[in-house]
Design brief:
This protein has 82 residues and is α+β, with helices and mostly antiparallel strands. It has a single domain, classed as 60s Ribosomal Protein L30, Chain: A, CATH 3.30.1330. The protein has 4 helices and 4 strands, in the order αβαβαβαβ. Strands 1-4-2-3 form a 4-stranded mixed sheet. It is globular and about 30 Å long. The protein starts with a helix and ends in a 7-residue tail after the last strand. The model has no long low-confidence stretch (mean pLDDT 86).
């Protein structure tokens, strides 16, 4: 995960993930099975991913993802942050 983030091709955390999905930049939505997200937030993220053509992966037992809030995304392309 850290290597992907270092290359600018991944994000973690709820707001960053929601932002890249909203802008169509997300390729794969990663949701930790144990993520402490309410059902509405989880559904919103899956809906955004589906509308943008991103895949959804439910990840079990990934401590690093869980430490980053249990949610992240792999990106289709690198775009500079403004």
């Amino acid at each position: 995960m850290e290597a992907v983030q270092a290359q600018g091709l991944g994000v973690s955390g709820l707001e960053e993930t929601r932002d890249v999905l909203t802008h169509g930049q997300g390729d794969v939505l990663l949701l930790a099975d144990e993520a402490s997200l309410d059902e509405q937030t989880r559904s919103d993220l899956v809906r955004l991913a589906t509308l943008s053509g991103a895949e959804v992966e439910i990840v079990k037992g990934h401590a690093a993802l869980q430490e980053m809030g249990g949610v992240g995304a792999l990106l289709r392309y690198h775009a500079p942050r403004v």
